[in-house]
Specification:
The structure is a single chain. The protein has ten helices and twelve strands. By secondary structure, it is α/β, with parallel strands linked by helices. The chain has an eight-stranded parallel sheet with strand order 3-2-1-12-9-8-5-4. The protein has a two-stranded antiparallel ribbon with strand order 6-7. The N and C termini lie close together (10 Å).
Length: 276
């Protein structure tokens, strides 16, 4: 039963958003998206953003907030999200020195738990958005599984990024079913990967994440609109339906094939054809 609503991660169209914040929100609604997930607010006041969303009939599903920002000023960030009416807030990324397998990883788990408690107290569910580096095994078990095993579901739910689960060599549909009771929001991101691709994170934005000089061979790895890559989309959507996820969020990182706004429109049309 297709109950999940469709949102878009606005990081996918960040350059357009920076130029015309409210114009992009209007275009997103016209494409057929029911909600948006933010990744920054471009100095826009929360009440003005909330009013614009209400006028358009868009839901502020969530936003991606860096761990450093949450460690520095969680209270005001949470208050901003309360004004928007967000039910969720996600930790999107860990820089290399704080990833699983590093000395700082245990500290990260402690910090995430504390942020989850603060969010819960305000009526917001904290999520964790994975990449593939959390699929490092620690004592025979994936770090991502250890994270979820260390923090109760009411303090930390999943935001499974199906692309990166696939890149890690796991089945994203099976992974969603594994966390059926804590997967309210699911990221859909299509891609192509041929052989061993290097420096994939350099495609997340124009500067890269950890290496600003990284060059990616786009013939071995690239991001695509939904339906134009290797993502097992229909299997994933079946799992989404079966476990009762509330939102599916379209996300696409950098691709040279087409403008970002065109890419998210193609993704929305693909989902419409599949009944969403």
């Amino acid at each position: 039963m297709k109950n999940a609503k469709v949102a878009v991660q606005l990081y996918s169209v960040r350059d357009d958003l920076e130029k015309d914040f409210y114009g992009v929100l209007k275009q997103v609604k016209e494409m057929g998206y029911a909600g948006v997930e933010f990744a920054g607010f471009y100095d826009q006041p929360a009440d003005k953003v909330k009013a614009a969303l209400d006028d358009l009939g868009l839901t502020a599903v969530s936003s991606h907030v860096p761990l450093d920002a949450l460690n520095g000023d969680a209270d005001s960030i949470i208050a901003y999200h309360k004004t928007l009416g967000c039910d969720f807030m996600a930790i999107p990324w860990l820089d290399e020195p704080r990833r699983p397998g590093t000395d700082k990883w245990p500290e990260v788990v402690t910090q995430v738990k504390a942020i989850g408690k603060a969010a819960k107290a305000a009526g917001i569910q904290l999520l964790y958005h994975n990449h593939d580096f959390e699929f490092l095994k620690i004592d025979g078990k994936y770090a991502l599984d250890r994270l979820y095993g260390s923090i109760p579901a009411d303090l930390l739910a999943t935001e499974v990024d199906t692309c990166w689960v696939s890149v890690a060599g796991e089945d994203p549909a099976a992974y969603l079913r594994k966390y059926a009771d804590r997967s309210p929001v699911v990221h859909l991101k299509d891609f192509i990967k041929i052989g061993e691709a290097a420096n994939m994170y350099a495609l997340i934005d124009e500067k890269g994440k950890d290496d600003t000089t990284a060059v990616v061979d786009r013939s071995t790895f690239d991001f695509r609109p939904l339906g134009l890559g290797q993502l097992a989309l229909e299997e994933i959507l079946k799992a989404v339906d079966d476990i009762g996820s509330k939102w599916i969020v379209v996300e696409q990182d950098r691709s040279t094939e087409r403008p970002p706004m065109e890419a998210i429109k193609i993704s929305r049309e693909t989902l419409k054809k599949l009944g969403y």
